[in-house]
Specification:
AtLOH3-like, 72% helix, 2 domains, 0% strand, 246 residues, mainly alpha, elongated
Length: 246
C-alpha cells in the first residue's frame, strides 16, 4: 500500500503542472520522511491494541461482557508498549520499514528538524530521541492510557461489571445476583423503595429461572430487546423490580 501511494504521488507530480504538481511534491516529501512513517506506525500500534475494545463498546450492551474483559487487557498492552523494551521493538520495526523503502533513518542523538520546515535556527531544540520517544511515542501512549483511566475508573468499571450481569446473551449466562443487587443498592438506590430492595434478590432468581425456560427469550442479544420482550410477554408486571434494574 505504501509503495503504491508513493507511485501515485510521483505520477501526479510528473504528469500535472501548477498547484496539483506542487501539492503532490509536498506530500511526497512528507510521505518519504521518517517522521511520517514513525507516526503512521504508532497509530497502527495503538489502533491495533484498542480496536477490539472500541468495537465491543460500539455494540453497547450487546457485547458488554466482552468489553469489560478487554479493558484491563488493552491497558496492559499499552503500558507494555511504552516500556523501553516496547520502544526498542517499535524502533526496530520502523528502521526495517524505512530500509525496505529507502527512507533515511534519523540519528536519535542528532537534532530534531520538523518535516518541510527550514532547518535554520532549529539546532538548539530537542534532539530526535526526546522528540520521537518522549514527546511522540510515550506522550501519545500516555494520553491513550489517561483517557482509558478516565473513562474506565473504578466506579465506571464496577458499574459496567454490574450491568453485564443482566445481559441476556446465551440464556443470561452472565447472570450474577450479587452484582445486580449491588447495581440497585449502590448506584440506583433512589429508584427503589426499601421494600423493593428487600425483595429484589428473590425476585431476581425467580425472574432469571423463568426467562431461561421461556423460548421467546432465547435469542435476545441486548438489554433493549430484553426490555421489549418483558413488556410483550407481560412479565414486566410480575417482575417489575427487576425491570427497574435493567
Amino acid at each position: 500500500m505504501y509503495g503504491a501511494l508513493r507511485r501515485v504521488l510521483r505520477k501526479i507530480g510528473d504528469e500535472y503542472h501548477g498547484a496539483e504538481a506542487q501539492a503532490a511534491l509536498s506530500i511526497q516529501t512528507i510521505f518519504r520522511s521518517f517522521e511520517f512513517v514513525f507516526l503512521a506506525h504508532l497509530m497502527q500500534e495503538i489502533f491495533g491494541y484498542t480496536d477490539e475494545l472500541c468495537r465491543a463498546l460500539q455494540k453497547q450492551d450487546e457485547d458488554i461482557v466482552h468489553a469489560i474483559e478487554l479493558v484491563p487487557d488493552t491497558k496492559y498492552y499499552l503500558e507494555a508498549l511504552r516500556t523501553n523494551v516496547g520502544w526498542d521493538d517499535f524502533l526496530t520495526k520502523i528502521t526495517s520499514f524505512c530500509t525496505k523503502h529507502k527512507i533515511k533513518v534519523v540519528d536519535m542523538e542528532g537534532p530534531y528538524f520538523p518535516v518541510g520546515r527550514p532547518r535554520r535556527g532549529l539546532c538548539n531544540g530537542p534532539n530526535n530521541y526526546h522528540r520521537f520517544k518522549i514527546d511522540m511515542f510515550v506522550g501519545v501512549i500516555n494520553r491513550q492510557i489517561s483517557e482509558m483511566n478516565g473513562r474506565f475508573d473504578e466506579v465506571n468499571t464496577e458499574l459496567l461489571s454490574c450491568m453485564e450481569a443482566f445481559c441476556p446473551l446465551h440464556l443470561f449466562a452472565a447472570y450474577d445476583q450479587e452484582k445486580l443487587v449491588t447495581l440497585a443498592t449502590k448506584f440506583y438506590a433512589s429508584d427503589f423503595t426499601r421494600d423493593e430492595l428487600a425483595r429484589l434478590p428473590w425476585q431476581l432468581n425467580m425472574y432469571v429461572t423463568n426467562v431461561r425456560r421461556d423460548e421467546r427469550f432465547q435469542n435476545l442479544k441486548n438489554l433493549c430487546q430484553l426490555s421489549v420482550m418483558l413488556v410483550e410477554t407481560n412479565k414486566h408486571e410480575q417482575y417489575h423490580i427487576c425491570l427497574q434494574v435493567s
